[in-house]
Amino acid sequence: MNRPKGQGLTPAVVVEVAIACLEAEGESALGVNRVARALGIKPPSIYKHIDGNAALRRCVALKLWRRFLVDCHQQTDNLNDSQAIIRAIAYTMRHFAQKHPVLYTVMTRTQLSLSDPDFAPIAQEILSFYNKALAPYGFEEAELIDAIRMIHAGLLGFIEAEKAGLFTLPRSLDLSFERMLDALIEALQSKVFKP
Length: 195
What we know:
The chain has 195 residues and is mostly helical. It has helices at residues 11-25, 32-39, 43-47, 53-76, 82-99, 101-109, 120-134, 141-163, 173-190. Helix 1 (11-25) packs across helix 4 and helix 8 (141-163) runs antiparallel to helix 9 (173-190).
């Protein structure tokens, strides 16, 4: 897993190797010592670029959110229908979690703040997807926040339960996911959460 010949050690290289370690070995591999071994260097060399395990996890989560947003753009950029955008975001998130379960866990369970200058533009981009999808509903600001939270709770809850193997009844998970999306969209249309 050494870096390519002639390529110096940079934060970007450290993050890419950390992601490769995560994919190969699971979440326990997300650490400066493990990444240093993969790079064939001593841990202090990484500290010149990334300040410890918490900073490494933050940098990896930021990179994963950026990757996820690229996927979202590919699936939604040519869509104008509100329901189609919501479904595309939902399926993009579920497919990302299915294809990269460990990366998804790190991405969604690493707490990032809107005051973080590296995360703020990512959060704004995520909001832009939802603003585009929810614009036809004419929500006021508080309602828009409620709607976004409702969608996120539904998606994250379903995906986490699916990853944990908690859905044991004999019914297609794909059909259940589709029914959940139908219900979310119906709730949005009826403004069920409006005070």
